[in-house]
Design brief:
This is Xanthine phosphoribosyltransferase. With 194 residues, the protein is of the alpha/beta class. The chain contains 5 helices and 10 strands; from the N terminus they run αββαβαββββαβαββ. The structure holds guanosine-5'-monophosphate.
């Protein structure tokens, strides 16, 4: 998505070879028009799929899941994140290890809102190591729902997340795919040949 790539080039802060900060327009302050356009793009990509729910993880996936839900005309659910504690019985849960924060937390979704009749699109802001999204994939499968795809706003293609999801048979779509980055330069996957 060209508009998104331009914003990343203009406003993205590359903190290291692996961490990109996009706080000015994506996940702290949010450009609402861009978020809606991102939702419409997911809507176009998955238009032929009979999606019944969009699923994301709090907090920074919420605005994109909402925008995708609006575009597809379906509700969205955000999985709740907690430090590992005893969970009640009426939730689906998965354990996620965050490599950026070096901590393990639990994500959970109420069994009231996801079940075997659901066809799910998972949406999130970043695909990096894939740990967070694999947790959501596990929840969808535990619920007996059908997973129709994963849409992420930014994929850092030099990390292992996409391969991990594809090994699980998941269709992955990213709107901006970063091939490599270093302070002052971002290369997108499409740019590789130019
Ligand atoms: P994972 O490694 O599980 O794929 O990524 C987990 C979460 O870490 C993402 O949903 C995102 O919120 C955050 N994250 C990973 N890499 C980056 C990054 O380069 N920049 C920002 N802002 N967040 C990131």
């Amino acid at each position: 998505m060209k508009l998104l790539e331009e914003r990343i080039r203009q406003e993205g802060l590359i903190l290291s070879d692996t961490v990109l900060k996009v706080d000015s327009f994506l996940n702290h302050q949010v450009d609402t028009q861009l978020a809606l356009e991102i939702g419409r793009e997911f809507g176009r990509i998955f238009a032929n799929e009979p999606i019944t729910k969009v699923l994301t993880i709090e907090a920074s996936g919420i605005q994109f899941a909402m925008a995708a839900g609006i575009a597809l005309g379906v509700p969205f659910i955000y999985a709740k994140k907690k430090k590992a504690v005893t969970l009640s019985e009426n939730v689906y849960a998965a354990s996620v290890h965050s490599f950026t924060r070096q901590e393990t937390y639990q994500v959970s979704v109420s069994q009231k809102y996801l079940g075997p009749n659901d066809k799910v699109l998972i949406v999130d802001d970043f695909l990096a190591t894939g740990a967070a999204l694999v947790g959501l994939v596990d929840i969808v499968r535990e619920a007996g729902a059908e997973l129709l795809g994963v849409g992420c706003v930014i994929e850092k293609s030099f990390q292992e997340g996409r391969a991990l999801l594809e090994q699980k048979g998941v269709r992955v779509h990213a709107l901006a795919r970063i091939a490599s980055m270093s302070p002052g330069e971002v290369r997108f996957v499409e740019d590789e040949d130019d």
